[in-house]
Amino acid sequence: MFNSDRWVEVSNKCCNLNLPRRLLSEVQQSVMASKEESTVRNYSNSFKKFVSWCRKCSFNHLSASPVTVALYMVSIIQTECSAASTLNQVFYSIKWAHDFSQYNVNPCEDNWLKLCLEGCIRKIRRPIVKKEPITLDILKSFVYKFASEECSLAELIITTLFIICFAANFGGIELENN
User: Fold this and answer.
1) pLDDT digits (tens, 9 = 90+) for 112-168
2) Which residues contact residue 170 at a Cβ distance below 8 angstroms, ignoring those fewer than 6 apart?
3) Is the peptide bond between 63 and the residue preceding it cis, with omega within 30 degrees of 0?
4) DSSP state of 108
5) Which of 3, 47, 107, 146 could pair with 93 in a Cys bridge, judged by C-beta atoms 3.0 to 4.6 Å apart?
């Protein structure tokens, strides 16, 4: 990533103006310090996977097109990804690498690609499964289990409160009829 035009320019200025060579290193370290060390490590690892995938598919990784990044994200959800955080890390690692390398066009600034990211995240989310409502049969089995002759006073009180709450809030009419 230090081979982009921006970093070559910094290196050339240091050499041409007879500035100490350590200034280049200091600039590199300053840019790297813009993110936490753990974030840089995670982004670097994630971006290396992207580079490997791009090489395997003969795509350009710097400067990648929005289509390349979209294809990579979709390939991830088809093969390995089960969390939105993984997709976000992939997206932002590619964005970080392009920002870091200072290419003119960052594919992650593309609105279409942002829509693709949102869609991928939506596809991997687990659907909300609503619980079945408590039926009279479930209530009866609860009573038989916890309000038997051998139950303690505490179990009998909790069971009675449960039935009263159920009757008051959810099924008073059905309980009266049965």
Assistant:
1) 999 999 999 998 887 777 877 777 788 888 888 887 788 888 888 888 888 888 777
2) 133, 134
3) yes
4) G
5) 47
